[in-house]
Every structure is written in C-alpha cells, then in structure tokens.
Specification:
This protein is of the alpha/beta class and 384 residues long. It folds into two domains: 4-146, NAD(P)-binding Rossmann-like Domain (Rossmann fold, 3-Layer(aba) Sandwich); 152-262 and 293-383, RNA polymerase sigma factor, region 2, helix turn helix motif (Rna Polymerase Sigma Factor, Chain: A), CATH 1.10.1740.10. Helices cover 45% and strands 16% of the residues. Strand 2 (30-37), helix 2 and strand 3 (55-58) form a beta-alpha-beta unit.
Amino acid sequence: MNSRTLAVLGSTGTIGTYTLEIVDKYPGQFRVVSLSCGKNIDKLISQIQKYQPKVVSVEKIEAISDLKKQFPAVQFFSGKEGISACLETEPVDVAIVGVVGFAGLEPTKQALRHCKIVGLANKESLVVAGTLLQKEIENSKAVCVPVDSEHNAVYQVLMGRQREEISSIVLTASGGPLLKHPEMPLEDVTPAFAVAHPNWKMGPKISVDSATMMNKGLEVIEAHFLFKFPEPQIEVWVHPQSIVHGAVWFKDNSCIAQLTKPDMKSSIGYAMKYPERPERVIPKLTFKEMAKLEFYEPDYKRFPCLRLAREALLAGPSYLVVLNAANEVAVELFLNGKIRFSEIPIFIEKQLRFHETVSITSFEDVISLDQRTRDKSLETTSRL
C-alpha cells in the first residue's frame, strides 16, 4: 500500500501533535512532507528531526536563519507564502489544518484548493467566512472532513442519508470546568481554572471558549455551514462524559448517535485515512464507561456566549466576523489578567451591538472587518 503524503498545519499545537502521534502509530502509511507552526520553535525542531519534512513554514521570518543552519536540506518559509509552499511544493494527499483561531482562515482556503483530503480542525475559518468557504468546498476536488469530534460524529452519521429524512442534528458539550461548580461566581474564575478542562487536553484559547460555551456557539455556526442546516435545527446537549459526540434526529423521532472515548485521535485518524478507518486508533469503550450517560439543557443565562453566537448567525455574515474577532480579543485579555471571566460575554456583546451590517463578498472583506473589530475592541478595554 502506498503511503499518503501529509501536511500538518499547526504541527506544534494539540491537533498537530496528535496527528503526528497517529503517524507514529501506523509506520509506513503516512509520509510527512510539510509542517507549519507558530511560536514553538523548540518543539518544531524536534519534529523536523524526526519526520524530515521537505518544507517548513514558521510564523516569524526572523526564526528562519537559525533553522536553515540546523537543517540545510529543508526549505523554510513564513507567512502566506509559507502556507502555499507547504501545500504546493509536493502533491499533498491529506492536509490537517490545526491552526487555532482566525489565523486558520488562509491555511483552510489554500488546503481546499490544493489537497485531496482536508481534515479541518479550525472552526473559526468557517465562522468568519462560511459562505465563501462553502463555495471553495463545492468548487474544490478536495474532500473536507471535519475534525472537531462533534462535527466528525455528525458527518459520519449523515453519510448516505437523505436530507428529507432528518429533523435536526445534535452537538454535545461537556459543560467545561464550571459544570460541577454551579454556585461559583463567574467573576472568581481564574485563567488556571478556566483552562483545566475535565475531559479534553486542549490549548488555552479553546479551553476558555469551552468554559464560556462560546466554543459550542462557534460549533453551531460551523455545523450550519458544513451541513447546511438552519440554526433552529442545530441542537446542543450538555453531556459531561463526552462519550456521545453528536447525533441526528430523524423525522420519525428516532435518533442515531456516535460514541467514542473523549480522544481527538479518533476523528483525526478518520480524516487521515478517509474513506477507510484506521484500526484501533483509540481504545474501545467499556460497559462501565457507558453505564451512566447524562444529558442536560444548556444554561443560556449563565453562559450567554452560546446565545450570542446563535444571534450572530441569524444576524448575518458580518456579525459572525465581529463575534469571532471580539471573542479572540476578549479571551486573550482574560488570559493576560486584564478582564474578568464574567466580562468576556459583556465585551463581545458590546461589539455586536455597535456593529452595523456590512457586505461580505470576498476574503479581503473578512480580513478587513476582522482587523477593524480587533482595533475597536481594544479601544473599549479600558471602559470595562
């Protein structure tokens, strides 16, 4: 069997690390041809040594000089040119897009244009440019396989189904670290508490999003663009065990769900081997683990970010750009101790209330509005 060529965009993050662990688990099945990373150069160096990619892209061009001295056979790039080089220097069978936040928009767009299979772990690109990326997917020869566990679950359950059979889709949410602390004042939540997710090992940004439930709001928007369901037909269930990842309700009121251990390697492996499945990529669930599965309605009052995301989806494309930019700024401010956890949704809602609809017809429109929103958001920080 021929090995698949693999590009890992965001190789030093959680998704990238898991992807490379799967490469290790199945020797000879994948060949890493390119890597991209942000600031974690030390970890990148160890990855280059191990996987010997032909092309590497880094965030800052200043890092390239030292890297070239250590790895003279590797081609190094930065910025937009670097992402292009990662995807075009050699034919790429599978690209895993694990870049976090708005920064993942450009890699997602380019991966759809150049690769056979795109494992998409960046929800923000679909949030801010969903309509534009829908067109890219429709015009692309690539298969776009979602890597978020919830969307990957729905993707699998929907496969081969007729749209007229289905009444709604379901995304589950763990409830984050606050679920077991319903009386804890939100203004007392510290960054250390917010990033300590009970079920998943994730980066700080997505962990805070999980704690505020903005992550699930962004996933509702992502699901809307991936599966073309209107907002009212996308349900959210709080499920503390994170074993049921997604489900589909049919018009006869029967439901089919997908269950696995809470391990991202399951959905990443599915994307990497699509349309096949890797053997035993994660351990099988036990009866004991499935003995008590709990489900709750989301608390929209305690977690208004989920409401804000749904409202932004109904309001239109430019509101989605504002929602995402304001959230990224707010999370960064919180992690740096400049605003309280309880002020994150207040911060975001202010930007949405100030915003007046603008037309979004190109990726340049998205980038411009994103930057304007970030600039405006930072101006309001001192007023909180």
